[in-house]
Queue: 2 jobs
Job 1
Amino acid sequence: MTMPGPKHVLALAAAVFLLMVFFPPYFGVYDQAGSNLHMPLGWHPIWSPPSQADAYRAIHGESLDSVLAGSAAERSRVIEERLALTRVGFNKVMFVFQVVVVALVASAVAVIVGRLRGRQPK
């Protein structure tokens, strides 16, 4: 069985890096009266991030529609207030950590492959 070359490892690392760039991790924050609730929202395409309603549902375990009752005007006002307190953000710390891990793994695999190729007879 032949071992993958450094070029293959580099191509794989580049593909994983591009996936991470196009599908970054997101988080939701619900901020009310000084207490923040944080919840990871998963990885979503950069062209279609999760909505504020998705963040609210992930943080509280229920949709706004199931919580609210009353007149349409009052319901609309309460929904707007609650959504204003819910934010969606891009998790930069997790993204940087993932990039570092991919770079370290790719470089370690490239070193291992290089050493194994040096030991094999030609």
Job 2
Amino acid sequence: MDNDQKETLIKEVQWESFHDERLKISARDDLEIIRSQVKQGAAQLWECTSANNHGYAVTRIDPGPELVVVLGEGSGFMEFAPRFVEFAKRKNMTIRTHVTRKGMIRFWSRLGLNVDEYILRG
């Protein structure tokens, strides 16, 4: 491999204290819950790297089975997210994620996910 090239790598990593800062925007008020789930093994923290992008994702598998993309943060959504969708398909799982930004609906729709419900709060 050329030194200027870096393969795309998605690997499971252990939660370290610096992840609190790196995932706080996506995790919002659920950071403590998500951290606890990862540390207990109920969810998985993935580090996603390539030549141009770096990010993190947290997933868990719910009954169904269903792969839940709990959060994603960093750069490279369109590079890394298809790998999670492909994994779910290979394992005959449905895939679910919750989004707060309309733009993310467009991204996930390009990968074959459809809007299932709307949640309104007051």
